[in-house]
Design brief:
With 294 residues, this protein is mainly alpha-helical. 75% of the residues lie in helices and 0% in strands.
Length: 294
């Protein structure tokens, strides 16, 4: 009988938060300094995925079963496809409305994990997860004004939220059926690269004419994002999706906010500050009570 590795997910989740949090603090630099388009940043990210993929595949056997390919491609396409849909949505609607909605994707994972994977947790851990889900929404809040029609971008945002929630569930399910970290991440990398031509088409020919420093800066920041993705895969192969995803999704923007405060002297709003407190409290409650479980 195939069994998934249990326990010891917290160090990998901490690494996910670390790399993702630093990436979040500096990910906007290529666009801010050079006007680098988001679609090109996606393409750069897809290429940087090759670096951690090469590391994790060294000495590992690629699972060549059709089931592994099906899971791997589904995982990769829900993640990368969601990213492309998000780029399109951001071109149609306001970020201050879009990101709080997308931040609900961990809730999708939690619900699916309870229903489909029969994951259960202690009540105190469940309270911690609930607090982190609230924190994720608060941390995604960006002040904005006025009204915005939702006809064009709302369906896209809904698909992004669903896709990323399902991706995390598939990663956990892949581990349960015996698909290794290296195989899952390799297929994620391949899927991301397959969608690069679509990202470049979305730039409408504006991908040329940028200095090499723009691509280098994008490559450096997106490499952090790629490494974070690998550690997330490793976290989900060792811990419950209903715990790992809310905790990492809540703590990553906390680190981003703190680094932004130090680097850019940006003071968080009251709502974001409340999100930080809830994220820390909820994550501590979820992880400590679950680790204490027999």
């Amino acid at each position: 009988m195939l069994t998934v590795r249990r326990g010891n997910w917290i160090p990998y989740a901490a690494a996910t938060v670390g790399f993702s949090g630093v990436w979040g603090a500096f990910s906007s630099l290529p666009t801010a300094k050079y006007g680098y388009p988001a679609e090109m940043i996606y393409a750069v990210w897809a290429v940087t995925m090759l670096v951690p993929a090469g590391v994790v595949l060294r000495g590992a056997d690629m699972d060549r079963r059709p089931m592994a390919a099906a899971y791997g491609l589904a995982i990769g396409l829900t993640g990368a496809g969601g990213q492309l849909l998000l780029l399109r949505a951001l071109s149609l609607g306001p970020a201050y409305l879009i990101f709080p909605i997308v931040a609900l994707s961990p809730a999708v994972t939690v619900v699916l994990a309870f229903v489909l994977l029969r994951e259960r947790m202690r009540r105190t851990a469940g309270l911690g997860v609930l607090l982190t889900l609230v924190a994720v929404v608060l941390l995604g809040y960006t002040p904005g004004g006025g009204t915005s029609a939702t006809g064009g971008w709302m369906p896209l945002v809904g698909l992004v939220t669903l896709a990323w929630g399902v991706q995390a569930l598939l990663l956990r399910r892949a581990a349960i059926v015996g698909i290794g970290d290296a195989t899952s991440f390799a297929y994620m990398t391949m899927s991301g690269l397959l969608l690069v031509p679509f990202a470049l088409l979305m730039t409408r020919g504006s991908q040329f004419g940028y200095p090499w420093q723009a691509s280098a800066l994008a490559g450096g920041t997106q490499l952090l994002n790629a490494i974070a993705a690998l550690f997330l895969v490793m976290s989900l192969s060792r811990g419950k999706a209903s715990l790992v995803v809310p905790v990492t999704s809540a703590l990553s923007p906390v680190l981003t906010t703190l680094l932004s405060l130090a680097a850019y002297r940006e003071v968080p709003s009251v709502i974001v500050a409340l999100g930080i407190m809830l994220a820390i409290a909820g994550s501590a409650l979820a992880t400590t009570t679950e680790e204490a479980a027999p």
